[in-house]
Here is the input.
Amino acid sequence: MARVTDVLAKVQADKARWIALQYVDVPGFLHQVTVSASQVDAAAFSDGVAKLDGSSARGFQAPEDSDMVLVPDADSYSAIPWEQGTWRFLCDVRSPLEGPRYPKNPRYISQRAEDAVKAAGFARVHVGAELKYSLLDQVVTTPGQPERAQGFSVESREAAWNSLGTNFPIEFGKGRSVPAPQDMTGTIRSQACEVLEDAFSIPVHSHQHGASTAGQADIALGPLPLAKAADATLTAKYAIRNMAAVGGLLATFLPYPIYGENGNSLHAHLSAWKGENNMFYDEGDKQAELSNTGRYFVGGLLLPARALCSFACPTNNSYKRLLADANAPAWTGWGKGNRTALIRVPVGRLGNAAFKHAEFRASDPSANPHLLYAALAAAGLDGIKTKADPGDPIPDDIRRLDDKKRKEYGVKPLCTTLGEALAELQSDDKFLRNIFTSDILDAHIELKSLEEQENAKRPAPYEFQTYLQI
Here is the structure.
């Protein structure tokens, strides 16, 4: 209650006129209900604010049972710099008829994951998000009449196909870390990072131009405890979109927006801690300074890797990235410093205990971070519990191995479609049951199955290009 009292005093001191109550639905879309600051009193933090129609949020409630409340998280109070007089709280979702915790609330799942981490004997699991996205000048789609026209066009001041005579177009795959003036979106990217740190207290370790042409950006957020890292990832996407709009651009987190180019990823950098000790670090390990705990965690991630795809790559577009992006993993396996592996254990800072972690590289920014990070923790903890040995690190480029060598390494292909990933989840979800409720698993599978079916029904422009005269 002391924290609530302090926050309410700060609301008064800030002279906040409006409070944005933000929540996330099952697929990971952020929603907002803005109320007068007078509506957020001490009771709101225990009883909630009755301003949510649960039928309007994907995966929540049917219209006949849709009265829900939003419970503000006092620790998430922050100003919204681009909305004058408005501050925000991230909220938990609650159904008055279902008790204090709503089983389909994604934030509840990441909170359950933190409980499981503590039950396993750790203080916390840290997640550092490495987020890629595209800053575009214009995207035109034809969604209104799918029976008449289906297509899109993308414009970018940096794009290889768009020489304006006043710019330096970036060739395909040649954008990594280019400076200005080739990097024409760096100022907007920098402003977004400053907003994340100054307004939302989210640490940013670095930012740079991504490898792709057409305004790809790469931002590395500092590691945070799992649930806070999920909140930070959602907030980062929210802030990035708005700062791009302020600068006259459109930010998209679509995994594979540009044909023939590197896609947008969400690499998750994971480590487990007891107090101030990183339990993944072992200076005596000659391969990667990785402890047995770290090895078992990696082994736990590898075993259900195909099922994890349903959370890490949860859209149809995700699998275009896995199939076409040379920098995206298409196979399981782990390696020390190996960027062709599903899991990379960095070795760039040997002797630094705090730095040791495992990087999960298949995931993309269409994922709901609350579900993704919880699923990764569930798999890793299960690996520690069962002492899942990942084998030796793979030193080769996994993409170039022949079938015989892949079999020798125990490497398996990741899923190639969303439907395949959902089928894997349905047959391999035991490792999740300690953290995920059956309600949210069912809602996730139902929503994503519908997306997969709708995508399969629609003819694509490439089909007309290829088959029009057949």
Remarks:
- The first strand starts at residue 18 and ends at 24.
- DSSP finds 13 helices and 18 strands in the chain.
